[in-house]
Amino acid sequence: MEDGGRKQGAMSPCAACKLLRRRCAQDCVFAPYFPANEPQKFASVHKVFGASNVNKMLQELPEHQRSDAVSSMVYEANARVRDPVYGCVGAISSLQQQVDVLQTQLALAQAEVVHMKMHQATTSSDQQQPPLPVASNSSSENLSPSSSRLISSQSKSLFDMDMGESLWSC
To answer: What does UniProt give as the signal peptide span (predicted)?
Structure first.
């Protein structure tokens, strides 16, 4: 039967007391949050914050907030171990950049869908309308609407040139 990482009767020290090489008291503030089977959890928190500071923070908080505080400290400590300069801020910044890139890709994809729907709508309306007679004058002003659409659809639009294959390459 476990009680905050310590076995009843055997009094196995919590991860904090084991690392600090001290006797784990029954009312140890670390025991509920740093069980003996997760020593790396306290080790990283201790390395970044120090046992005394963690003890003070936990003592100052109401018991119902301590678990969340420990989770936050563990996350920040692990981030600081990976990136000593920026810590969590570096991770958040990296994630925000990824979100920005993905939002841009989504906007481009949505614009491409709208472009394709408009192209499809104009193509289907061309097929439903009978062609207008073309005057004998060869200037482009006298082309029928369907002919001018055909010419414009055959030329590559600026939108298509910007999109290319890069939209889907990651």
So the answer is: none
Nearest to 33 by CA among 68, 1, 80: 68
Q: Residue 49: count other Cβ atoms within 10 Å of its Cβ.
A: 17
Any long-range contacts for 50-54 (C-beta under 8 Å, 24+ apart)?
51/16, 51/20, 54/16, 54/30
Cα separation, 98 vs 104, whole angstroms: 10
CA angle 54, 2, 63 (to 5 degrees): 35
For 70-111, the pLDDT digits (tens) are: 999 999 999 999 999 999 999 899 999 999 999 999 999 999
In whole angstroms, give the CA distance from residue 94 to residue 103.
14
Residue-level pLDDT at 109: 97
Instruction: Report residue 79 as tokens.
Output: 């981030």
- Quick one: DSSP state of residue 129? S
